[in-house]
Amino acid sequence: MKESVLNPTFFIALSVGAFYIGLLIQKKTKSLLMNPILIAMVLLIGFLQIFKIDYATYHENSKLIDFMLQPAIVCLAIPLYQQLKRIRQQLVPLLISSVIGCVVGVVSVVGIAWAMGAPKDIILSLAPKSVTTPIAMEVSRTIGGIPALTSCVVIFVGIFGAIYGYMILRKTRINSPIAQGLSIGMSAHAVGTSKSMDISNSYGAFSTLGLIINGILTAVLTPYLVMLMQAILGF
């Protein structure tokens, strides 16, 4: 492909177009597996491979999308503000369940990885799996994990949660919008929160709350939880 074509406008249009195609496919098929983000990733990876374009070139020319994500994240404060009264009423249960959820999330994945014989660096890379990528990568780097691997795991967990999260909650008879939204935000971070926003502002608000609280708790608690499990399990 000609170098003159490889400019920011082209790559931004490519990214938006891939996501739009994903939306159309999901709307047409109505399948949970046809997640727009997953489809966009597959299309973009395929395009870069076919035309021999390295990821560094794509990333450098798509920085405007990263920049626009910052004000988009701030917009999540709107449904939070709209649900502020309900959040205040349920503040203590929300905080307690968030702490328990964070601890269980880290301990369970570390324990399962250890039981399956995973190497130490892999175990440490999996520990911060349920928070948004920048936080997860920094936590992984701090505790001795592999940030690049952590990033891949975080993306997978987010997409899995967005596809199957609400179905699993319904199957386990968890029907409260507050519990559902908080659970998805804590387990599937920003991707799950995007799915919650599609359902309603109420689900989106509590999913956003779960995303924020779990991000803070994971950054603070994970190093200590990992040290405790290392002492107990000896990895």
Q: How would you portray this structure in words?
A:
It is globular, with a radius of gyration of 19 Å. It folds into 2 domains: about 10-75, no CATH class; about 75-235, no CATH class. It is built from 12 helices and no strands. Helix content is about 80%, strand content about 0%. With about 240 residues, it is mainly α. The longest helix is centred in the last third of the chain and has 33 residues, at about 200-235.
Question: Secondary structure elements and their pairing?
Answer:
Elements: H1 8-29, H2 36-50, H3 55-61, H4 63-74, H5 77-82, H6 84-89, H7 91-115, H8 120-126, H9 133-143, H10 147-171, H11 177-199, H12 201-233
Helix pairs in contact: 1-2, 7-8, 7-11, 7-12, 9-10, 9-12, 10-11, 11-12
